[in-house]
Structures
1.
Amino acid sequence: PPPLLDVRNLEKVYHLNDGLLQRVMREPPRVLRAVDYVSFSVQPGETLGLIGESGCGKSTLARTVLRLHEPTSGSIVFDGKDITRIPLAEMTALRRRMQIIFQDPYASLNPRKSVEQIVGLPLALHGVAKRGELRDRVVAMLENVGLKSGHLGRYPHQFSGGQRQRIGIARALILNPSFVVCDEPVSALDVSVQAQIIALLGTLKRELGLTYLFISHDIGVIGHVSDRVAVMYLGDIVEIGPTRALLNAPSHPYTKALLSAVPQIDAGSRRERVKLTGDLPSPLAPPSGCKFHTRCPFAMDVCRREAPVLRKNGRDALAACHLLEIEHAA
Ligand code: SF4
Ligand code: MG
């Protein structure tokens, strides 16, 4: 089947300090290349996991795909329609089908609004529920996420973290979207609550026929929820492939390093241990060539000069590393 979402060469650049003061001070403008020509697709019904250290551009990528941030260049095709440059009014209508669940349910819920108002607001904004029907739709959605109609009149502070995330999920799903970005949806929750929310997201996906782009820095979470995984480093996807293959036998040194930092999940895994040294370089001054070369134990001369391209690396998998090109050539 054709992909639900097809992203090609997506670029998102921010120009920082190019304001008047900086021009007067003659500081050079700084460029933050948050998403650096990224391509991937998501099949209907699939969960694509997106993993990487914080600051690698995962959230910016997801928000740019939803056009909550404007793309600098590239293309985003959603359900066969190029949405990269459609007018915002048209995008607003489409947003019913593309929603996002945020990391911090508390920060993303208006503390002065009741649950009924919060979850009902998208329906009201999009004018898709008749007057008398709004409350019923909210109650039905609350039931879907494990809350009760008795919760309608309560405010966010009256709920636990897990319940608040349930409210955030209800708000995201009330418009019947087909594609949902889950941006670190359990990272702010206690470990005991994380499993409940992950299970709920899985149930809702099956029952409502959803497709997820699931962002997390936690490999355990990503391994559990994803059909395929994309690994991001400083604005690039460096490896992408089916979850089991990628976690059991990663190809890219960065993926190996990420996995080496956590205990072996699978006894049959053939993972080579790679120690991740040093901090993530500033995305304002990314290293030349392969951006990972400053931390890669296998770095060669060519790595400092030339950026490796994402190329086929086994069935349904892609990776960007000069080592793999050498292996394939040999
Ligand atoms: Fe390491 Fe070179 Fe591969 Fe980059 S291209 S991951 S520096 S071996
Ligand atoms: Mg983030």
2.
Amino acid sequence: AAAVRCQAQAEDMDGHYIRRCVELARKAEGHTSPNPMVGCVIVRDGRVVGEGFHPKAGQPHAEVFALRDAGDLAENATAYVSLEPCNHYGRTPPCTEALINAKVKEVVVGMTDPNPIVASKGIEKLRGAGIDVRVGVEEALCRKLNEAYIHRMLTGKAFATLRATLSMNGIVTNQIGKGADQSGGYYSRLVKEYDGVIISSNLARMSTLPVSHEAGANQPLYIIIAQGEGSLLQIPFLSEENASKAIVFADSPVTVEPAGVEVAVLREMDLESILQLLAQKGLCSVLVDFREAGEGFVSLLNNFHEEKLVQKVVVELLPVWLVSEGLSNLAFGGSQSFLLKNMEHRECSDNRNMEAHVLGVTAVAD
Ligand code: AOF
Ligand code: ZN
């Protein structure tokens, strides 16, 4: 019984330290692409002696920072890593070597690395060196952390999230919640988690685009879809200095102002090709922003479901009831809106089908 209890305790500790690895990894959220976010903790005699995370592609991996932090105390210690240690010479030398040289006794791995040049070879290498390796601790959490990286590795496409703002009566609007684009606002919080944001040329033509104002926050690449444009597209939110923060996908040649913005002319403007091209450029995740979406932009989503091109949907529900002309489900400009207040939500489950979770939202009319 004592042995069983002891093992249960060890498993608890494994989970505890891998959760800490994930927390550390997240410190670099938005900065690691095309690399994954990875965290590492070194524990000796029940005490944390080193911690580290991968800050940015090209820089050392999480294990290296944690081993440096631990120094000589890494000998005979247990290393916890949210992702399998690499076993290849990439931009940096293999982490398996660093762990072996540091003489750690055990390695606990959250999940194996889907990168075909790693894929379990790291684990084999460590085991071959006589290190005890446990794999698959808090695996679901580790997968969630790097869902975009994993998706790109397995499909060669960027992970796509659709976002839209809806009125209470379900009309897609071009507004974002008041203050939503301010530092810490919902939109800027969302944007900094993505490597890129796909927007319509209509939105790009508007004066300012919300970006994250937080110091050091990731600024995404703006991917502008220009269909049936004239010969000139002006993008007021960009200057020549930050022209590299955008790329235009157009269906015919177009001159872009400011100069210096990359333009890619695609004969067929489909979401699949766009997500492949973005993955090749090293983007793991993109947010598809629906504001000011015209018909061409909306048609990008034809077949997205069959082709499994979209992985997630995010909506922001505004406390307004919109009365739009002709009852279209897209409302811009001149529509009338009634402001509501005291919004509340609760999750309601359909008893016949437990998979269906419905969010019930109420708000008070003035
Ligand atoms: C680890 N620890 O912290 C990370 C790993 O170009 P490189 O040398 O940075 O290698 C990138 C690959 O290494 C990346 O695609 C992924 O397979 C792995 N990332 N591995 O052991 C880390 N970031
Ligand atoms: Zn590595």
3.
Amino acid sequence: MSKKLWGGRFEKGTDKVVEDFHSSIRFDQRLYKQDIRGSIAHARMLGRQGIIAASEAEQIIEGLEKIMADIEAGRVEFDVAAEDIHMNIEKILTERIGDVGKKLHTGRSRNDQVALDVRLYLRDEITETGRLLRELITVLLERAEEHVDTIMPGYTHLQKAQPITLAHHLLAYVQMFGRDCSRLVDCAKRFNISPLGSGALAGTTFPLDRMAVAQELGFDGITENSLDGVSDRDFAIEFCGAASLIMMHLSRFCEEIILWSSQEFSFIELDDAYSTGSSMMPQKKNPDVAELIRGKTGRVYGDLMALLTVMKSLPLAYNKDMQEDKENLFDAVDTVKGCLAVFTPMIRTMRVRGERMKAGAKGGFTNATDVADYLAKKGVSFREAHEIVGKMVLMCVQKSVALEDLSFEDFRACSEAFEEDVFDAIRVERCVADRKVPGGPAPDAVKAAIQAARERLS
Ligand code: ARG
């Protein structure tokens, strides 16, 4: 049994089973960079404040920089017995530079150290996730620009409702992913403050310059209460909440991709590079990527629920339960990034079958509202017009024809308000073009929306 950094008050070593059980080095080694950055800033401040000698601070910093380089080069092996990344690095440091290494932890606890590391980690990952989201939005805007005139059916209840365009449909997702971006930014804004100096729970007797450390590490300020500084994991939960919404949006889009690429819809064809085949059925081309993203949505929701449940009812301040925050947080980060990285090129390369979309927009009485609107514009009340057109649809269903296939006499028989111009007014192109209201599907409104989204992006 190995000697622990905290072993002073113990008469016996840790049982081997316990050692394996409570060690987190297997997963928290991913925080090595943040841990070393934090330690360097802490050591520099200790030296500047005269808490340790300036030369000692220098030795520590130099030692930490070498450890960083060695970890990066794959030359460091971590030790399960040293528990976590924080103690592994401190242990290596002391092995290398001698007793002066033991001064690094002055005025610090692993509790504020780990709170710092996770914040630094998440800050970088939020930047990367935001970049991936903006890349997706850029591709959506490019594809929308191509398809401003590509008419397709819009649905409610997955029943054909009214004609829209593919561009308009894609722009709905631009809105969702735009909100996701702002949620990430907002979340980072709230947690970008340094907990170092909170100590184990009650701060420290050493005259630390918390603000200087925070500034060196790129924080906007410091946490205002030492208990909260070490026991707050709201930011991890907020991130998982934001990540869950990203996944929810991706899964809705994926569901449509899966439907649209079915033979029954045939609205799109995924590129071969983003589809897979069947081991038995030679004809198959499956939208596995979209399905897998839809499936992975569940794990990110699971990560969110796991974190909420870990934190539920924990008394202040730090409790070892909180070591369980990392694997779920890392999983959410990896999953959302992995999904975005494959979803974006899948959308960029998918082939759109405009003729199939337009054909789809034509069946199913998608212009029925336009017939009613036509009557309302000719002075019939909308409620009455709705009733008249409902009867016309019933008549069409019985005859198996579309509204535009009715003769002018048929129209007149239903309402005297119909004139010859009704046929032009209910063409599917007109149905789209006349919905010029801001936020609507008319090509000019969509072009304006693309322009506005581009401006927001830059
Ligand atoms: N590995 C620990 C964690 O991730 C670090 C903090 C440990 N603190 C303690 N008092 N045992 O939560």
4.
Amino acid sequence: ISGILAIVGRPNVGKSTIFNRIIGERKSIVEDIPGVTRDRIYGKAEWLTKEFRVIDTGGIQLADQPFRDEINMQVEIAIDEADVILFVVSGKDGITMDDEYIARLLQKSRKPIVLAVNKVDDFSQNDAIYEFYNLGLGDPIAVSAAHGIGTGDMLDEIVKAF
Ligand code: GDP
Ligand code: MG
């Protein structure tokens, strides 16, 4: 095992869809049904001879707690457990305040971060990635987890960081 990848991001950006793509099974529940069992958020993946574990932190939820507490906990788990963090945002929504909040938490960590702009479903939407340079986390990578576009480039960046 080369290391652990943790997936973080606000709800509905496509973390679980990406997780399922990376591990090649439908394990994590897409669309944030609360109360998912813990084993659903852990998976194993392989890319370019490297094997790694994957955590979908969005599936780790706190009952009846403010959203920020939940995000704080998810990011804390990612920073503690992971060797590489995949930060997922949505090209359909652009940068939101929650994205900026998470970006600031991640910047304080020393962990390598790969920034995936999901929901870029075709090339005509590719310009949507540029505003995400403003998060200060490096080069955004266009991905469409739903259509399986860009996930290879994203995985290349992930395994480089292990
Ligand atoms: P999570 O809350 O971050 O885990 O997000 P989910 O994986 O549950 O996805 C939230 C919604 O976005 C679902 O309706 C998905 O089908 C949709 N979605 C995920 N990836 C894509 C994508 O690449 N393109 C589009 N258009 N929708 C997507
Ligand atoms: Mg999810």
